[in-house]
């Protein structure tokens, strides 16, 4: 391999130093490509690191950006607009993490949590880049999703030449990345395996299961048998196959075998590591991806240095190749890497787009306005009102639905409640909670909530979602009114036939319900197989359905006040 630059004939003004060899502290060598202008002037560098393959990222030079639901949308082309990075006066360095693409080494477990810290590797890449004659010593990072998580891992190691980072759509709580409310989410499978709109990780035989290395064959067999005894797992062919043939997709096997939170996910959790970050951090996330919005807010709270948070509008998924947010990213780096006083730090730290309104709310904190948590109560005939139900359980009969497993039906049962039309514009910004008094006839089920803004003409906009595995209903001491937290450290089976209160976290959102609109909340234990919102997400972005028939009874009487607790702004 050579570091001799060559000009890209398809893009005049760009040269690429192909397959650069970047040494790590343990002797492993990583591979990277560097895109720059045609002169020899040293420039600041923006580094992108992932296991998706640097050759895939090069498609940004030849493929126009694709939006969902284009069949050419590939979720892994996330390193940014190479041509624009160069045109703005930066070197774009795109590298393969350890064990992937053209890099040496082995990758163990998710984010290499069982092997060499990816943060340490990123430190070494950044310092190597800063020492090259084509770099002026100022380094930032670029890229969304996995690339964004890598920026947090890198910054926590404090490489001296990393001056700032700009993160969009990263994943920070490793458990919540794959288990929403304790319910297994399939989208990470797509990123790892390469299916459903994703090319997947560029690992070959250098990816190893951390579980297979950490435990004896007897212990692995025991754990596999326990997972296969779960009716939800047993009803899903891909998971049955995975558990019988774990070396086919080692990282996905490790995730499926670890269904509760703990050391497995917390060892290198970016939210924990972020307390060590001292460089300026810009966080950006769009609404509609509630679990990731939650992670950005949690990360923003623990960062101690200069920081910005932007919560953008729909749609939830950017184009691929990723080109959005570049204007603000280059303002950020012009200030922190080039020393241009462009005013980027003169605006408030937090900026939030409010759905249903042209308003962008700014403040120094989240939520950006004072809020008052108020309840909307589930009522008869699908009503949702500020007034609680006055009648007791003898007279206010519960609502309910029966869901057959998807092995025998394609019909997903949904039960809903709705407000009267709003008489005046009503704004809500923050997290929320659903307090549901449920009686189910099985040891477990999924609780899936989706809140919509329903317009008079029938159009609906998703506002937020909430997920909870019933066996994960325990709350921890972080819980406050309207802001519940579940530790997810163990599963406690439900006692069939007993009415229990389940408090479901509603992911952060910002919206205005205009006059004439209604708030609609839907409850199910699986997701509709196709709808307008899911069409905005990759095909595998759904959750593991319940593999057993379940009857759900929703009690909503004076003794069992099932309700939503929502963040109404107070106008201040």
Folded structure, characterized:
- The protein is an alpha+beta fold.
- It folds into two domains: 5-207 and 262-347, Alpha/Beta hydrolase fold, catalytic domain (Rossmann fold); 371-569, Galactose-binding domain-like (Jelly Rolls, Sandwich), CATH 2.60.120.
- It contains 15 helices and 26 strands.
- Strands 16, 17, 18, 20, 23, 25 and 26 form a seven-stranded antiparallel beta sheet that branches. Strands 1-2-3-5-4-7 form a six-stranded mixed beta sheet.
- A hairpin with a 5-residue loop joins β21 and β22.
- The longest helix has 13 residues, at 118-130.
- It is globular and about 80 Å long.
State the gist of this model.
The protein is α+β, with helices and mostly antiparallel strands. Helix 3 (118-130) packs across helix 4.
CATH architecture of the largest domain: 3-Layer(aba) Sandwich
- Shape descriptor reads globular
Percent helix: 10-25%
SS summary, helix count: 15
* Average pLDDT: 93
Question: What is the topology?
Answer:
Elements: E1 5-7, E2 15-23, E3 29-36, E4 43-50, H1 54-57, H2 82-87, E5 91-96, E6 107-108, H3 118-130, E7 135-141, H4 146-156, E8 165-168, H5 174-178, E9 179-180, E10 183-184, H6 187-193, E11 207-208, H7 210-214, H8 217-228, H9 231-234, H10 237-244, H11 250-257, H12 263-266, H13 270-273, E12 281-286, H14 290-302, E13 307-312, H15 326-336, E14 350-353, E15 360-363, E16 371-379, E17 383-385, E18 399-403, E19 415-418, E20 426-440, E21 446-454, E22 460-469, E23 500-513, E24 518-524, E25 550-555, E26 563-569
Parallel strand pairs: 4-5, 4-7, 6-11, 8-12, 12-13, 13-14
Antiparallel strand pairs: 1-2, 2-3, 3-5, 9-10, 14-15, 16-17, 16-26, 18-25, 19-24, 20-23, 20-25, 20-26, 21-22, 21-24
Helix pairs in contact: 3-4
């Amino acid at each position: 391999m050579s570091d001799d630059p060559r000009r890209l004939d398809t893009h005049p003004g760009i040269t690429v130093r192909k397959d650069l060899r970047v040494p790590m502290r343990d002797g492993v060598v990583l591979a990277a490509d560097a895109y720059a202008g045609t002169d020899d002037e040293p420039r600041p560098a923006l580094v992108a690191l992932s296991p998706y393959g640097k050759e895939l990222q090069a498609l940004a030079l030849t493929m126009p950006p694709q939006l969902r639901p284009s069949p050419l949308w590939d979720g892994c082309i996330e390193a940014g607009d190479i041509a624009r990075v160069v045109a703005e006066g930066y070197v774009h360095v795109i590298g393969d993490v350890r064990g992937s693409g053209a890099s040496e080494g082995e990758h163990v477990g998710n984010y290499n949590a069982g092997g060499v810290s990816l943060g340490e590797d990123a430190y070494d890449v950044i310092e190597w880049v800063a020492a090259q004659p084509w770099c002026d010593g100022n380094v930032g990072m670029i890229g969304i999703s996995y690339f964004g998580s890598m920026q947090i891992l890198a910054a926590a190691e404090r490489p001296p030449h990393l001056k700032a980072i700009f993160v969009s759509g990263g994943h920070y709580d490793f458990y919540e990345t794959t288990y929403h409310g304790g319910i297994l989410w399939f989208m990470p499978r797509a990123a790892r395996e390469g299916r459903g709109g994703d090319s997947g990780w560029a690992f070959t035989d250098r990816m190893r299961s951390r579980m297979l290395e950490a435990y004896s064959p007897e212990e692995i067999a025991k754990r596999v048998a326990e997972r296969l005894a779960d009716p939800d797992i047993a009803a899903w062919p891909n998971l049955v196959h995975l558990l019988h043939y774990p070396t086919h997709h080692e990282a996905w096997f490790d995730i499926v075998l670890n269904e509760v939170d703990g050391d497995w996910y917390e060892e290198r959790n970016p939210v924990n590591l972020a307390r060590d970050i001292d460089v300026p951090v810009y966080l950006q996330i769009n609404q509609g991806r509630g679990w990731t919005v939650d992670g950005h807010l949690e990360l923003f709270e623990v960062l101690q240095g200069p920081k910005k948070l932007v919560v953008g509008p729909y749609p939830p998924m950017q184009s691929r190749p990723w080109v959005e947010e570049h204007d603000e990213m280059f303002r950020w780096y012009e200030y922190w890497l080039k020393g241009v006083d462009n005013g980027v730090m003169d605006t408030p730290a937090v900026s939030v787009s409010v759905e249903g309104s042209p308003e962008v709310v700014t403040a120094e904190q989240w939520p950006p306005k004072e809020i008052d948590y108020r309840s909307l109560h589930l009522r008869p005939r699908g009503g949702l009102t500020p007034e609680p139900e006055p009648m007791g359980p003898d007279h206010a009969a519960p609502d309910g639905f029966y869901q057959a497993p998807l092995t025998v039906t394609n019909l997903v049962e949904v039960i809903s409640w709705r407000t009267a039309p709003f008489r005046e514009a009503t704004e809500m910004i923050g997290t929320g909670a659903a307090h549901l008094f449920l009686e189910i006839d099985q040891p477990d089920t999924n609780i899936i909530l989706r809140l919509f803004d329903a317009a008079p003409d029938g159009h609906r906009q998703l506002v937020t979602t909430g997920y909870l595995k019933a066996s994960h209903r325990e709350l921890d001491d972080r819980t406050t009114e309207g802001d519940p937290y579940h530790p997810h450290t163990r599963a406690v089976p439900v006692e069939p036939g007993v009415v229990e209160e389940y408090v479901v976290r509603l992911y952060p959102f910002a919206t205005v319900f205009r006059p004439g609109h209604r708030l609609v909340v839907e409850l199910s234990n699986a997701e509709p197989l196709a709808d307008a919102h899911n069409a905005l997400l990759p095909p595998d972005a759904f959750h593991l359905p319940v593999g057993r028939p379940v009857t759900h009874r929703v009690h909503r009487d004076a003794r069992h006040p099932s309700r939503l607790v929502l963040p109404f702004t107070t106008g201040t």
